[in-house]
Amino acid sequence: MPKSDPAYDVIIVGAGASGMMAAATAGYRGKSVLVIDHAPKVGAKIRISGGGKCNFTNRTVSSANYHSQNPHFVKSALARYPSSLFIDMVERHGIDYEERDHGQLFTLNGAGEIIAMLRTECDWAGVEIRLNCSIEQVTPLPKGEGTHPIYELHSSQGIFTTPKLVIATGALSYPKLKASDFGYRLAKQFAIPVVPLRPGLVGLRIGLPDWTDLAGISLPATLSCQGYDWTRDLLFTHTGISGPAVLLVSNVWREGLAIGINLLPSIDAVKEVLALKAQNKELRPWLRSHLPKRLADYYWQLHPLDGKPAELPDDTLRTWAQALQNWQITPTGTDGYGKAEVTVGGVDTQAISSKTMEALTQKGLYFIGEVLDVTGDLGGYNFQWAWASGVACGVAV
Ligand SMILES: Cc1cc2nc3c(=O)[nH]c(=O)nc-3n(C[C@H](O)[C@H](O)[C@H](O)COP(=O)(O)OP(=O)(O)OC[C@H]3O[C@@H](n4cnc5c(N)ncnc54)[C@H](O)[C@@H]3O)c2cc1C
């Protein structure tokens, strides 16, 4: 097999969001950079992101928008590469964008413009990209400078060597877009721990009887789990629940936990229900006036109250109204990696430098982007992590 000669200063595996960002950053510093991807095109996930419009970042980003076993890990990279810097780049490239609710920024003319921008930045920075290239083996050769090994990559397009190997292979979500477990396997090869993986930003399955009757209903609701709560649209599907509120809560939900659903987030249900008693009015028509009829009837079937409010004790009415604003449902599972936008868990950030993204116990080996145990909320936060971790690594390699 032909060996790369001279060796590259940096090899990045994965031509996705974080990999291209790191590559351009390192290339501008004069490093010789090779990016390898087994897919036929760069940035496949960017292309389908945000419904094809790519929610490329958010106006307001903080560590509170991320989930990780080490919640402080993201702070350094996010502080050094805030969303305003990515917005500057988008504007320099003449890409039109719009701000939607909750500070989410989307392209106006399609995600392809973000891919083209990153590709252009890589070209300007002199980065070489090899596509359709799969890696069979990574071997550390103990002959680098100081304590640095040289990494030898055996690939379908030859053997490549480098003292700085960056893993930007993303996570398990959307296997049809060539997502792979490469990063986790490589971490294990070097005894770097991996936090258990599960699908995130994903719909949840509900096993209650006749649930399909609710399919298609959408309404604003507050969903809560593990001390977090989000008020967004909730969508009922044939198999469970989805929509922004559910995707957000799915990042913190774990098998066996209940989620709380407040179906009436903008009213004081206890006050209104006690007022019905005073006015000698019925409960069921009140419920139907506040919720889509199919949902009101379904909820009433599960939680009926016999008797008119006027005949019931205040405590009974209060408990019923409180339950309506904290409907406890235990999902049976998620819609899985095929539908999940992200993967929760990943390479343990306790084992990685938050400044450079280098593994603490393996010189010259870096992990960036979603392969790490860093998961953002819905709203452009996952891309912002990809950009910020890519830059943190790109300036360090
Ligand atoms: C449907 C969908 C919509 C999304 N929408 C948004 C959004 O609007 N906003 C947002 O912030 N986030 C969104 N995300 C999440 C976002 O796409 C990811 O968090 C982000 O792309 C992660 O960047 P990355 O560089 O870590 O990985 P990726 O962008 O996934 O790149 C990984 C690259 O590595 C390559 N690769 C994998 N395995 C190998 C291997 N063995 N050998 C060689 N190459 C390999 C892949 O082909 C890929 O090109 C969405 C995700 C999905 C699935």
CATH superfamily of the largest domain: FAD/NAD(P)-binding domain
Instruction: List low-confidence stretches.
Output: none
CATH class of the largest domain: Alpha Beta
- Total helices: the number is 12
Describe the structure in brief:
The protein has 397 residues and is an alpha+beta fold. The protein has helices at 17-28, 44-48, 75-80, 83-92, 112-124, 182-189, 244-250, 269-279, 283-290, 293-302, 314-324, 381-394, and strands spanning 10-13, 33-36, 55-58, 66-67, 97-100, 104-107, 128-130, 135-141, 150-155, 158-162, 164-167, 194-200, 204-205, 218-225, 228-236, 240-242, 259-262, 327-329, 333-334, 342-347, 365-367, 375-376.
Description:
The protein has helices spanning 17-28, 44-48, 75-80, 83-92, 112-124, 182-189, 244-250, 269-279, 283-290, 293-302, 314-324, 381-394; strands spanning 10-13, 33-36, 55-58, 66-67, 97-100, 104-107, 128-130, 135-141, 150-155, 158-162, 164-167, 194-200, 204-205, 218-225, 228-236, 240-242, 259-262, 327-329, 333-334, 342-347, 365-367, 375-376. The protein is of the alpha+beta class and 397 residues long. The protein has two domains: 10-199 and 337-394, 3-Layer(bba) Sandwich (FAD/NAD(P)-binding domain), CATH 3.50.50.60; 203-335, Translation factors (Elongation Factor Tu (Ef-tu), domain 3), CATH 2.40.30. The strands form six sheets. Strands 18-17-14-15-16-13-19 form a seven-stranded antiparallel β-sheet. A five-stranded parallel β-sheet has the order 7-2-1-11-21, with helices on one face. Strand 5 (97-100) and strand 6 (104-107) form a beta hairpin. Helix 1 (17-28) runs parallel beside helix 5 and helix 1 (17-28) runs parallel beside helix 12 (381-394). The model has no long low-confidence stretch (mean pLDDT 96). Bound molecules: flavin-adenine dinucleotide. Flavin-adenine dinucleotide (FAD) is lined by residues 13-19, 36-39, 44-45, 48-50, 54-55, 134-135, 168-170, 173-174, 178, 180, 182, 341-342, 369-371, 380-383, 386.
